[in-house]
Amino acid sequence: MTEKNTSNPAKKPGKNRRKSRELVLKGLYSLLLSESDLRETIRDISEDEEYGRADAEYFKSLLEGVMAERDALDARIGPLLDRPITELSPIEHAILCIAGYELLHDISIPYRVAINEGVELAKLYGGTDGYKYVNGVLDKLAAEVRPDEVKQIARPAKNARINKA
User: Fold this and answer.
1) How far apart are CA 122 and CA 115, in angstroms?
2) Tell me, what's the pLDDT at 154?
3) 39 and 88 housed in the same domain
């Protein structure tokens, strides 16, 4: 009899959204810097050695969605910045677009997850303290686009502090 690994049956190999986001970041970075073709970029990324670990459908839909909404995302993110969007590093700009797109267009992803994923990408690929900046901008965006969800999460924390006093 052979033993099956049942330590985490919910985890499916090759369906990693975090890896998909990393690959979308690579693709967006390329697209933002070189204005290359979206289809060519998708093909190039699909040849990446990490692609097999990603959720391919999510990767493609996220990259295509961000590129289709790029101007709208910039218009939404721009007023939340302390500098012109053109002065952002390409990495931070791409991360804000990815997480911003998820906040705006995929309510199945809790706002805290979208923010956390953006922060993690910034820690891995951004500047020294870029993750703090990304976190601050995404917090503001979440409060604008998902106010009920943000208030619902914030309310128990306030009640907990009141009860401790």
Assistant:
1) 11
2) 67
3) no
